[in-house]
Amino acid sequence: MNGRIVLSDSVLDSSILIVDRGLIEYVGPTLDRLPPNALVIDAAGCWIAPGFIDIHVHGGGGADFMDGTVLAVRTALHTHARHGTTTLFPTTTTGSMHQIDSMLSAVRDVRTNLGSIPESRIAGSQIAGSRIAGVHLYGPFFAPDKVGCHRQDGRRDPTPAEYDRYFESELIHIATCAAELEGAAHFYRTAREHGCLVTCGHSNATWAEMQIAFEAGMRHVDHFWCAMSSVSSLRSRCGTPMQASMEQYVLANESMSTEVIADGCHLSDELLAFAFKMKGSKRLCLVSDSSRALDMPKGRYRFGNEHDGEWFVYDGQVGRTMDGTGLASSASGLDHMIQIMLRATGAPIHEIIRMVSLTPAELTGIADCCGSLDAGKQADLVLLDSRLMPRRVFIGGVELEGQLMRDDNIKN
Question: Which terminus has fewer CB within 10 Å in the chain: N or C?
């Protein structure tokens, strides 16, 4: 009781939310009678929000998904769950085919053991971390001049001989490729046939190349303004007359969605507010793009595989390339992103939360089971204090590292 329930289009005050067997059973006005033996949770001073969904995340807690081990996957899942992320898409970097295969194998092993809805609520054990909804095949199909902090020798053009094996794993749900690469259109069509959210990223593409990609099924652009073409970058590539870039294409096309890294280091508040104004909460996601440096001390870390990934320096706020000229992913969770986005836009809280819940769920085709606090969906919940800091996290009705909720009933 005493909490405020954040719906996708509004906020409910003085209401209750009831969970039964891991699913949301009821959201609405206070009932005269609660289910027998219901466990009542006092959420005084808190927002009750749907669990966050991260569609672009590399690691955390000292681990990168590209380490390719079960331990690394579990470590990253646990780390992000502490920041309110209840569902995520482990994201590849550039690297060898063997490294990507190892990453997919480790993710499959962990996902198989965890299950789509945690069965541990029945056995009484604790939830270990975020749920895996699928893999984001991000690297290695980047443009040579937009590799960023990834290993340059780990990038390559897409070929069916390589990416078909990844899609055949049935783990890939988001697929990225630079639009100007040879074979990109065929990659996009294949990804679309496999039901993926098809994206363009780490690209120096022109408007014309983006249009070809759109016709092949591309509908999303990774981390807006980061490692993407601009009018000035295209002048170096294409000469004059100056060409329209990915930025103009995305902003002019209502069907295109995108994402921002709202960590306060990648983009100014003005750019975050501009992106929100242009695309709105239904076409804009917040992503962590987090590296292994999340929740770690200052120091030197590898981006990507722990053995041969590029080194970067974490300064306590963000990762920076070794020469100090660029950023190396973020080192923040989605909880930090919503705080910065609220500061930058002043938007209603339900629109801020939508960008880390229902919008990514809709874009990736999982909105039927998560992304909002609707009856029948998984009981993935985050209790946020007045500063939007996570205080309690529930995945499938089970509290993260907490006691089993008796009869899985929550009253707020």
Answer: N
From CA 138, how far away is CA 25, in angstroms rounded? 36
Three-state DSSP class for 154? Answer: helix
* DSSP single-letter state for residue 405: P
> What CATH number should be reported for the domain holding residue 59?
3.20.20.140
Q: Of 289, 292, 399, nearest to 71 (Cα)?
A: 292
* Inter-CA distances, 96 with 162, 270, 281, Å: 11, 38, 36
User: What pLDDT was estimated at residue 116?
Assistant: 42
**Any residues with CB less than 8 A from the CB of 299 and at least 6 apart, and which?**
313, 314
pLDDT, tens only, 362-383: 999 999 999 999 999 999 999 9
Residue 35 lies in a domain: no
Q: What is the pLDDT of residues 15-43, one digit of tens each?
A: 899 999 999 999 998 877 777 777 888 78
**Which residue in this structure is represented by tokens 């591309």?**
218
Q: Domain tally for the chain?
A: 1
Question: Contact at 8 Å (CB) between 327 and 320?
Answer: yes
